[in-house]
Protein 1
Amino acid sequence: MNSKIKITVNAEEKEFSLGRTVNDVIESLNIKKNSMFVVEKNLEIVPKEAYKNTILKDGDAIEIVGFFGGG
């Protein structure tokens, strides 16, 4: 049994150990918790309160989109 999964994060394939969550991916990318961003898993938005409980599976696609002010 393979203890690793491959997921796509913002169009880049990455490898994680089994049982990793959306929150683990965010932490691995050093994204600040107070940043304005949305996480999409397999084309569906993941609510912030579900990041720690959303376990990733081999082949999942994650998109992390940040919001930036400007003018």
Protein 2
Amino acid sequence: MNKSELISAMAAENGLTKVDNEKALNAFVDSVKEQLKKGDKITLIGFGTFSVLDRKARTGRNPQTGKEIKIAAKKVAKFKPGADLSL
């Protein structure tokens, strides 16, 4: 499912227009990004938790040449599904 399919599914479920659902989805995504950039955690009970994970610097290997390369430390977004989301 892509973004436009999700917007259509949301519109069918809640009866709002696709334009309104797109605005709501964009606002949700922007809010999550903003909070994660601040280092905050977002918990949606029954759905899951968005958080930031610090990855340490490490040594990797170029698969084509086999040469070792240094991979810098960075922060990445993480999502942990809630219990109600299990399939």
